[in-house]
Structures are given as C-alpha cells and as structure tokens.
Design goal:
Layout (H helix, E strand, L loop, with lengths): L4 E3 L5 H7 L4 E4 L2 E8 L11 H18 L7 E9 L1 H16 L6 E7 L7 E8 L9
Helix pairs in contact: 2-3
C-alpha cells in the first residue's frame, strides 16, 4: 500500500486534523482537493453568502498554491449548493471572480439539503505541473 502524499495549506492543519481528513492528496500527476467551504480560520462559516463563496475560493486557492498549482490547473469541479434554485445565480456571479479565462474546467453542480452550516462547497481535481526536467 502506498502512503498518501497529503497537501496542507499554511495555517489550517489543525482544522483538518481536528476533522480527520486531508485537504488534498497528490496521486498519478493529479491533485484531488477535498470540498472547501467558506470557513473562517476557526472553522466557523462566514454568515453572508457572497463572502462565504469568496472565502471558499480563497481556501481552495490556498490548497492549490500549497501544491504548486492554481485554478488554471483545475480540470474538474464539483459544487454543492444548499437550495440551488434560490442561490445558484448569486453564487455563480461571485465564482466568476475566481474562474479565469477559457477554456474552463468541466463542472458538476449538485443541490443538497445540508452542508454542516454552509451554503456552498467546492471540490476539484487539478493537473499538477510537470516537474522540470534537467535536460536542455
């Protein structure tokens, strides 16, 4: 059995250890990022929806950055939204601040009834940058 290569963003390891999961795992040239929510440093949710979505993307970008990549390396996105009929358009307008230019990653949006006090969660798979070769 291989050992998981876990990626931790700076300053949040205690939160992940408390909840007993890895923020991201490297495998086969990809980075599999756990669902990121709009949590403050102590793990509590941002109360306002737009701020919660921005914080979720900031938390996601911290995980991606800790692995040496960014949102441009993301190939697959899954978003979970409580009451998507009421919140999707508002969430999607905030998400565009972080989305970047085309070509875009593929996306699956899932409506859910509960996210542990949050209204939005995003999980992604990113292609890790190729290691620099020693050849010229």
């Amino acid at each position: 059995m291989s050992v998981r290569e876990v990626v931790f963003p700076a300053g949040r390891q205690a939160l992940y250890e408390k909840n007993r999961y890895s923020p991201a795992v490297k495998s086969g040239g990809f980075l599999f990022v756990s669902g990121q929510v709009g949590s403050r440093e102590d793990g509590s949710p941002e109360p306002e929806l737009d701020t919660q979505v921005r914080r979720a993307f900031q938390n996601l970008n911290a995980v991606l950055g800790a692995a040496g990549c960014g949102f441009a390396d993301v190939v697959d996105v899954t978003v979970f939204i409580v009451d998507p009929e009421q919140r999707f358009e508002r969430i999607w307008s905030v998400a565009q601040e972080f989305w970047g230019e085309a070509p875009y990653p593929n996306v699956t949006a899932v409506g859910v009834t509960w996210l542990y006090g949050f209204q939005f969660e995003i999980k992604v798979v990113a292609k890790l940058p190729e290691p620099a070769s020693g050849r010229n």
